[in-house]
Amino acid sequence: MAHKVTLIPGDGIGPEVTRATVRILEATGVKIDWEMVNAGASAYEKTGEYIPKELIESIERTGLGLKGPITTPIGGGFASINVALRRKFELYANFRPIKSLPSLPTRFPDVDLVIVRENTEGEYSGIEHEVVPGVVEALKIITEKASTRIARFAFEYARREKRAKISAIHKANIMKMSDGLFLRCCRDIAKEYPEIPYAEHIIDNTCMQLVMNPYQYDTLVMENLYGDIISDLCAAFVGGLGLVPGANLGDGCAIFEAVHGSAPDIAGKDMANPTALLQSAVLMLRHLREVEAADRIYAALEKTYKEKKHNTRDVGGTSGTTEFADAIIENMEAVAVVS
Fold first, then answer.
1. pLDDT higher for 156 or 127?
2. HSE-CB for 268 with a 13 A CA cutoff
3. Active-site annotation holds for 204
4. Which H or E element spans position 246?
5. Options 50, 92, 124, 198, the catalytic residue
6. Are 168 and 116 in contact (CB under 8 A)?
7. N- or C-end of the chain: fewer Cβ atoms within 10 A?
8. Considering 44, 171, 217, 305, which one is annotated as catalytic?
9. For 224-236, what is the mean pLDDT?
10. Mean per-residue pLDDT for 150-166?
11. Cα–Cα distances in Å, from 273 out to 29, 38, 263, 267, 295?
12. Mean per-residue pLDDT for 318-329?
């Protein structure tokens, strides 16, 4: 039986990296029934809407999405498409594993971090108003429900995957009520998982400590805005946003996405690196319990980077999107023969 998945190609390089990723997924033999619906600038040109009704209806049917990079206009009252989808489908957990790929020169080799970010509230609640001309007030919303839910998600993941420890990241020394509530919820949940070491770190110090020595952390759980910043910072340890996956998870729905930009300057030139979306697709396969296929793709990805022959320009090579995807598919066959 085929898995039903909503496919959102996105803007700029989105369609190219999406095509490459779909080709690789199809080469695994896993049957996927794609419903392709776009959002963002591409959708606006056709429908006059950045988030068309057809997209919402498709995700409601499938409960699962794979999304390429989407451009949201800055300013002008346009809501972030990513934020809107997360809130619409109650995708409360943003999950980003940060793991080094072979043979890429970085300051810190063999990084293995996991960022768990609350995805529905905080500063991203989008509640803003002008108090008087020249004064704008934005509300940061922190609730016991959301804080408890994301803490439990982090501890359940750490237990299941045998992670070494969990660090709750906060600014409760200043925001004593909001971040204080978040910490109280994390502490309450931590008591239920006594085998997992738990610590708390202030956000600004965490940033400094990460760039000095990322190995002192393992799994980090935090509020929405902090998670947005920290996950991008940590992506730099392994080569940038073009290499790391992203997942937005809820109780009845999940959207897996590339979190980098749409790079319109290289769109249509067969230059884009599909690694971020491909790694997100690997997370999707694990979510679907297609573990063997996920393992094959990831092993082929590591083999491709280790060989260095088909790296794209952003990681020091000369290959294009198509050639890189071809190499992954070829190495998947090699990995299957070896195993």
1. 156
2. 3
3. yes
4. strand 245-249
5. 124
6. no
7. N
8. 171
9. 97
10. 98
11. 23, 20, 11, 11, 20
12. 97
- 59-68, 106-115, 122-131, 284-293: segment of lowest average pLDDT: 122-131
228 as an active site residue: the answer is: yes
Which residues are within 8 A (CB) of 52 and not within 5 positions of it... i.e. 6 or more apart? 37, 38, 39, 43
Query: Which one of 228, 298, 303, 305 is the catalytic residue?
Result: 228
Catalytic residue among 33, 110, 204, 251: 204
- DSSP-derived 3-state class of residue 92: coil
List of domains in the chain? 1-106+239-339 (3.40.718.10), 118-219 (no CATH)
Tell me phi and psi for residue 76, to 5 degrees: 70, 10
Q: What does the chain come to in residues? A: 339
Task: Find residue 315's DSSP bridge partners.
Answer: none
Is residue 176 among the annotated active site residues? no
Considering the chain, what is the average pLDDT of its residues? 94
**Residue 171 annotated to the active site:** yes
Which stretches of the chain are DSSP H helices? 14-27, 41-47, 53-62, 81-88, 144-161, 178-190, 203-212, 224-235, 275-287, 291-307, 321-338
Place of tokens 């960022």: 115
Work out the end-to-end distance of the chain between its first and last CA atoms, rounded to an integer number of angstroms: 25
Confidence of residue 330 (pLDDT cuts 50, 70, 90): very high
